[in-house]
Amino acid sequence: MSDSKQQFHKKLEHCLCPPGDGVFTVNTAKERKDALRQKLYGQTEGIDTLWKASLNSLTDSEKKAAILGISSDCGGGILRGANWGPLFLRSTLIEQQPHTSAFDLGDVRVIPHLLHDKYLNESTISNCQKALYADPESEYYVSPLSITEDVCDGFYENYPDKGIFGIGGDHSISYPLTKSYLKAKRARGIKTAIIHFDAHTDLLVERLGIDLCFGSWCTHILEFLPAPSHLVQFGIRSSGKPKSHWESTFGVKQHWAHEIRERGAQAIVDEVIAQLKADGVEELYVSFDIDALDEAFASATGTPEAGGMTPEEAMLILSALHEEFKITGADMMEIAPFTDSSLAGQSSSETTLREGAKLSAFLIDAINNS
């Protein structure tokens, strides 16, 4: 293993933790964590040692897709609880999508009160470095967005032909995931686009004075795209401003939920494919906020919205895009298993996780086959 990869693997051991452990608990949710450990490792004890040993096989893994959990909802702002998404979605994938597999890097070590290191003073950073790394002068970041970007930068540097599938967590997490992806692809001369499924535009400049959060992350990755129109949004329907405002202000392309319903998903995606091909796009990153789906299918989320897409519409669009372009990175965000705003008889968590797992499995398989 090269020195660069050895340093990167050392960083993984420090900045990440075993899959499902991203939410720091002592006794709470022990049974749920043990259930995932049993599925992944066949045992519930000594997991830290097994997980660290597994990282050594990343270099030789034939799987292109690598799962990274980021159990943070500090960048949210309505209903919290998406920090449990990585644990629950992994379990659902194993149970309901057994044909899908990926290398599991584990979870970012999350201090739940933090968002990004730039918001912290030196004293706080030092205290948090002591808590996370037992070293108040550690070289590593302490906030989930900062750690995620650092880890992803190292991943793409050392494994340029692999892709990360991020599991959140609130949608602020897509900022470091997409930023690292776009920087890496640009350095290699690969023309990319971000395909963004969401009920909301996430195009605020800031929210209550915070510039990196679930409602603003898209605005701040535009500078890393080849062109603003390479951010293509599907499923928008909850906005204080019309589509014309967002497209004229930022130069993005939007396809609102009612347009997909009225014109049909195939007609919409045909236009998108034509646009991206005309622009010379080669590879896609898909960021999927589960609230892009109608609340009948995805109510276990921080901001469920009526009038959304069906899972079939979303899958049709993804399948059509995958036929024409490589999908080399993706994420699934905003699944909050313990929230329940549904009036239906079936658990909203079960329904949301089932649909999220189907879409996640498709995206993981697409990365593996890219």
UniProtKB/TrEMBL annotation:
Asked whether the keyword Transport is assigned, the reply is no
Do you know which InterPro entries this protein is assigned to? Ureohydrolase, Ureohydrolase_dom_sf
List keywords of the entry alphabetically. Hydrolase, Metal-binding
- Keyword Hydrolase found: yes
Its BP terms in the Gene Ontology are: putrescine biosynthetic process from arginine, via agmatine
Q: Which SUPFAM superfamilies does this entry report, sorted A to Z? A: Arginase/deacetylase (SSF52768)
Q: Where are the transmembrane segments?
A: none
> Out of the domains of life, which is the source?
Bacteria
Tell me the GO molecular function terms.
agmatinase activity; metal ion binding
What family does the entry list? Belongs to the arginase family.
Recorded protein name is Agmatinase
Q: Which organism is it from?
A: Pseudoalteromonas peptidolytica F12-50-A1
State the organism's lineage.
Bacteria, Pseudomonadati, Pseudomonadota, Gammaproteobacteria, Alteromonadales
Gene name on record?
Answer: speB
